[in-house]
Write a structure and sequence with these properties.
This protein has 816 residues and is mostly beta strands. Helix content is 4%, strand content 63%. The strands form six sheets. The protein has a 22-stranded antiparallel barrel. Strand 8 (141-143) and strand 9 form a beta hairpin. It starts with a helix and ends in a 5-residue tail after the last strand. Residues 1-33, 126-137 and 797-806 have low confidence and may be disordered.
């Protein structure tokens, strides 16, 4: 497998050659967007009766190499306007169902950047709908100045949900718990349709699994965002773009998949568009029931380094997650509901041994955790377009409410050496968590073209986040039903406010595109614990950004960029009250944490050709006040000797490395994505901390698709991450494989697929961490391995036709 993947990567490096002409099939531009200040406008009319032709496809191609530059659809009155063109000669190609395609030529110059080509006639012809599918040569990946874009149907044709799509996206990793990372960094901002998700961690992982895959249009990976975007997310932004623009009339889709009675999913979407009215709704349900096995083994040492004792812990558990996701979009209002529930049960057997590994004690801990959550998210937006892409004003108000309820029941049962029970269950503990989070966001954005090649983008944003969390603990020490309050009980109230304003100035100079931006923020947080103990913190931040891009041709670009990012501590990281994972491991927040800042520098070179595309992106990141895990192996909490996991700010960290991403297309039968990431991170804890690390790691991913027959597709995806050292510990390497066979039953309207998730059972997690007092080895197998059968059906797709013969190109008329 490794030899095959590196062979594919080598082929990607050779993916250069003459650019093929492409057939535009939709209004959205294909390939990198234009970045000049020229524009072409006009109208398309019927040559017979001079009536306007609505929804005709307009494609602009370069006369120099026939490369597709941009495209759009005409409006109800047949008019169109395409902006952002550089000086040069172009073809304007017109196509519409029932008309013969026709091409016109026009010029854009510095002296005359505006080409008004007036009414362009096309000839009506008799068209018979055929059962012939016509596919344009779409690129596998669109490389843009600030992001890479991957179509969901290309990278994950049989995915069940948004989490599955992300799992097969280059540079993106999704672990067995569903947590998302970019270039190995979990501090990444996840957005949906350009809006930050209001939830994080395990809640976000569950939420992504309940978004049906058939409504995911594309994934955008933004490694170094400008000052226009929220600075959250040290590694950058991952934007999940959902389908919202439907065909005229009624359209919809349905998908369903299952592996066994406990692992299944279903989703549906329905859209209607008539005139200016657009309605769109989705529903998704996901159930994931998996067995989890693992170990937590501990070895204790005396001051001389000799072994004192052992604790061997074997875990046999089951994790059940299920949830519903409903969303609606009616023009300016978007509303979504997400309801989820989970059950995490585990039976952990503990065996205590002395230094010579002789038996001392044995007991079993029975843990059962039930959780429920409800997310309500509503967005009201309004946009005023004075001149498209030149003078625009938009506003948005968003309200989000999240309610989480968790209940954990823990019992200890003593056992004999042979594993039989030696008495009734004792030391019962019941933890109940009730939390409500409310977030209100108001945003205003303004865009204005100041001169022919100068654009200004400005905006303001206000964010208020409020959290009320009650944590109640009661105990039954003797197992006799006499439950008593515990001093672990606490209340937690959190208030965070961020006031931000930004400005971004863009300038084009010849083949160079320049951009400079600055975002200013004033933030304050305060939280109170039981007893009115308060921890206020206020801070100001500046986030500059800059881009220099040189574009020698339409299919290649060179870019250098800089941005400053922030990671604000989460409420769990701040709350100083202990939360037990099990009998011997506890999470303990640190209320004194400061935010960490990262200065990110990136250089990239990209090239597209007939065989695909390749992009090389070296990067360097310098982080101050970096947040890192602090493991204390000799903590005593609530009368127990435990290993505590907390956080502290270290002095700084430096990381540098490179990304190599590419696509390969060998005709209609085979295409592939490949990505390789190599980086080194050096962490310095400073004079006040002994924590530090110096580690090199790497990862790679291959996603290959073969069209065996016109209706049968085979896809394989492989991911590997090498071992990596951390402060006081080391993660083992990880690898994962997915294989999918997909059969079309009615063109693109219906399909059935079989997906083998982790067929070789290689997905596992292992970490060894500790200090001079203790070493703990933690390992898990998450039960990912399964065979899914998935059915997908789409309604309301545009008809497929055999394209008629095109008329020769002729010069377009130019009007003042």
């Amino acid at each position: 497998m490794k030899r095959i993947s590196f062979a594919v990567l080598a082929l990607v490096l050779a993916a250069f050659g003459p650019v093929q002409a492409q057939n535009p099939t939709q209004a959205r531009p294909v390939g990198p967007p234009p970045s000049g200040n020229g524009e072409v406008l006009g109208a398309v009319i019927d040559s017979a009766d001079k009536a306007p032709v609505a929804r005709a496809t307009i494609a602009v191609r370069s006369k120099a190499d026939s490369a597709l530059v941009t495209g759009a659809l005409t409006g109800p009155d047949g008019t169109f306007r395409l902006q952002g063109l550089r000086p040069g000669g172009y073809y304007l190609r017109l196509t519409s169902i029932g008309f013969r395609p026709k091409s016109y030529t026009f010029e854009i110059t510095d002296a005359a950047p505006r080409a008004n080509v007036g009414p362009l006639p096309i000839t009506r012809i008799a068209v018979t709908l055929q059962s012939v599918q016509v596919e344009g040569e779409r690129p596998l990946v669109v490389i843009e100045p600030d992001r890479n874009t991957y179509r969901a149907k290309d990278i994950a044709p049989a995915a069940a949900n948004a989490s599955d799509v992300l799992q097969q996206t280059p540079s993106v990793e999704v672990d067995a718990d569903g947590k998302v990372s970019l270039r190995g960094n979990e501090n990444v901002a996840v957005q949906i349709n350009g809006r930050p998700t209001p939830i994080r961690g395990t809640q976000l992982a569950a939420y992504l699994k309940q978004i049906p895959a058939n409504i995911v249009e594309r994934i955008e990976v933004v490694p170094n965002p400008s000052a226009k975007y929220d600075p959250e997310g040290m590694a950058g932004i991952i934007n999940i773009v959902l389908k919202a623009n439907t065909d005229l009339g009624l359209s919809g889709g349905l998908n369903a998949g299952f592996a066994n009675p406990g692992r299944f999913n279903t989703g549906t979407n329905l859209g209607y568009q008539q005139g200016k009215l657009t309605l769109f709704g989705t529903y998704g349900f996901n159930s994931d029931d998996r067995g989890i096995v693992g170990i937590n083994d501990r070895e204790r040492f005396d001051p001389s380094g000799a072994t004192m004792s052992y604790t061997n812990q074997d875990i046999d558990g089951r994790n059940k997650n299920a949830g519903h996701n409903v969303s609606t979009n009616v023009d300016y209002n978007a509303l979504s509901f997400n309801k989820r529930r989970s059950n995490d049960a585990a039976l952990a057997g503990y065996t205590e041994l002395d230094a010579s590994q002789a038996f001392l004690d044995r007991y079993v801990m029975d843990r059962n955790t039930r959780a429920r959550g409800l997310v309500i998210d509503n967005t009201l937006s309004w946009k005023r377009t004075i001149v498209p892409r030149k003078h625009e004003l938009s506003t948005e108000i968003r309200f989000n409410r999240t309610k989480d309820d968790d209940n954990m029941l823990l019992w200890r049962e003593p056992q004999n050496q042979d594993g039989t029970s030696s008495g009734p269950a004792i030391e019962g503990e019941m933890d109940v968590t009730a939390a409500v989070t409310r977030q209100i966001t108001g945003q205003l954005d303004y865009t204005r073209t100041l001169a022919a090649k100068t654009k200004l983008e400005t905006g303001l944003k206000e964010t208020i986040r409020l959290l009320d969390r009650d944590f109640t603990v009661v105990k039954d020490p003797l197992g006799d039903g006499n439950w008593l309050p515990s001093n672990l009980t606490n209340n937690f109230n959190f208030d965070e406010r961020v006031h931000a304003g930004y400005g971004v100035l863009s300038q084009t100079v010849g083949k160079f595109d320049l951009q400079a931006g600055l975002r200013a923020e004033f933030a304050n947080r305060d939280f109170q614990l039981a007893g009115a103990q308060s921890y206020p913190y206020k801070y100001h931040s500046l986030f500059p950004s800059g881009v220099i891009m040189y574009k020698p041709g339409e299919q290649s670009q060179i870019k250098a960029s800089y941005s400053r990012r922030i990671r604000r501590p989460g409420t769990q990281e701040l709350n100083p009250f202990p939360v037990f994972f099990d009998q011997q491991n506890v999470f303990l927040g640190n209320p004194s944490l400061k935010p960490e800042y990262t200065d990110a520098y990136e250089f990239s070179v990209s090239k597209s050709g007939a065989l695909g595309s390749v992009q090389l992106s070296p990067f360097y990141r310098h982080t101050t006040d970096i947040l890192r895990v602090d493991i204390n192996t000799s903590a005593v909490i609530d009368g127990r000797e435990v290993t505590s996991v907390s956080f502290q700010n270290l002095d700084k960290a430096d990381s540098w490395g490179t990304d190599l991403n590419g696509s390969l297309k060998l005709g209609p039968k085979f295409n592939a994505f490949a990505g390789f990431n190599l980086f080194k991170m050096v962490t310095d804890g400073g004079s006040q901390s002994a924590l530090s690390s110096n580690a090199v790691t790497w990862s790679y991913r291959v996603n290959a698709t073969s069209t065996i027959t016109p209706t049968v597709t085979l896809q394989a995806n492989y991911f590997y991450r090498a071992p990596v050292k951390i402060e006081r510990g080391r993660f083992d390497g990880m690898q994962m494989t997915n294989i999918t066979m997909r059969k079309k039953l009615d063109g693109d309207n219906m399909s059935v697929a079989v997906r083998f998730a982790d067929p070789f059972n290689t997905m596992r997690f292992r970490i060894v961490a500790g200090d001079d007092n203790l070493t703990q080895t933690t390992a898990r197998r998450f039960g990912v391995r399964a065979t899914f059968v998935t059915f997908q059906w789409n309604y309301g797709q545009a008809p497929k036709i055999r394209p008629p013969r095109e008329e020769p190109a002729q010069p377009a008329p130019v009007f003042p």
